[in-house]
Design brief:
By secondary structure, this protein is of the alpha+beta class. The chain is built from 19 helices and twelve strands. It starts with about 20 loop residues before the first helix and ends with a strand. The chain binds protoporphyrin IX containing FE. The site of protoporphyrin IX containing FE has 25 residues, from helix 6, helix 13 and helix 19. InterPro entries: Cyt_P450, Cyt_P450_CS, Cyt_P450_E_grp-IV, Cyt_P450_sf.
Amino acid sequence: IHNQKLNMPPLVRYKIPIIGHTYSYLFNCEEFLKQCKKEYGDIFSIYVWGHVRTIVGKEYAQDILSRDDAFNFSVAFNKKFPGDLLLKNLGPFDPTRLLKDHITCKLDLYSERMQKSLYSATQKYIDIGDHDGPKVFNNMYHLMTRIISTPIANIFIGEEESQYEEVIKTFSEFTSDSAALLKVPPILDFIYPGLQNYFNRILVKSGLYNPATKHQDILTKHIKNQVCKRLEEKKKYGDSWKRPNDFLQDIMERDDFDPINVSYLSLADRMFALIFASIHTTAGGCANAFMDLASRPQYMQELYEEQLEVHKEADENGVLPFEALNKMKKLDSFVRESLRLVGHLTSLEHAVIKNYTFSNGLQVPKDRVVYVYADDVYQDESLQGPNPKSFEPFRHVDKNTVASKISKNYLPFGGGRHACPGRYFAINEIKFFMHNMILNYNFRTESGKVEKRKMIGPAALPSTSGIIIEKKVK
Ligand code: HEM
């Protein structure tokens, strides 16, 4: 009754009750949204999976990101995902603060380790024997989760524990195993909005389906090993103890860590929250950048020459100084282009946490979920420059827009106060990975064509088409 007073965005008309726009949204999303915007304007609502959702066009997209008093990302996420049940021991936790204090400001310190463990993991998982010649890989995303989990585990929980294969497996599989709960189409929401999540919560709570448990057992065991070992060694050697440098050690030295009464479950859950934010996203970024280059051999030589030049600064182990990242200007632009064209049609879903009025007078009620109409932002010439949706890898060179720099025409990391705090870490990892691949391997798509993103409704995933990789002959 309260909401009836609001001047709400127009609801796009539909013919079939209950199903509403679900079918068009799933199978013809790009055209469907274009048509909606044309007929209904910059902000409109659609009826999908039993929920009214509001799609916000480019003119108002920044409101969603900058007005964090009215729009919230986690609240929207928790409406469809039982994160609180999977990570029961998380406790109060500020991942952004922790990342800023202990990861982002130490990226130079971690640079050598990131490179070494990234390169050895690349070699291990790509594993092309010397005589085998070209080899076909059919799911780059899957391969990338393994590769990038290695340096992330190394920096998060240390050199020693990250040597265990089961730890890497847990880092790389936790997100996709948990996200299985998100992949079930929310059919039950047709009966009553929110029923699917209610049902999923019962599955997890009752223990019938808890994808996190096996990973929690593994990670808790390894964290406990390390913490006990470190506390003992510190006691034994006192000031002469050489502290390991990693995120775990930093957490152990924070004021809120109690060495007498350590909660290993809570330490593990904090790691899992960061794993959830970092692995799937970075692996997707790497897979897309790699597929985008494999699809466009015409840019290979230019990028190769840049990497060769940059690599002159490497030491005898092939490790680059941290500053070398800034010299990969063309590669950085390539990565930005790949992230710019990540391909989601709608993204950055946020829940409305208090009624909000846009400057055009339209209002969205508390509890509504709103989406940024990303495709609208990326089709716009005034925002993107000429040929806004064509992949032009060097369009960002010398434009003062490096790949980690958020702006209103570049949304892969969100924006505003909650913009992704892990983006510097992620970009460095993607650049080091690509640098190494471009220098040491030849790769191309098996089809010989440009492989596009795989679309599931409005969401884009890296293509799973075959890629042929072979070692460069030197
Ligand atoms: C290419 C890789 C990545 C992409 C595309 C990405 C994307 C995003 C996006 C879209 C958000 C939401 C921003 C918003 O609400 O406006 C976010 C938040 C976040 N990301 Fe990332 N991310 C990536 C890598 C990482 C990594 C490597 C880490 C950790 C090391 C990380 C940690 C976080 C955290 C903790 C948040 C929550 C911030 C908050 O709510 O204040 N991300 N990320």
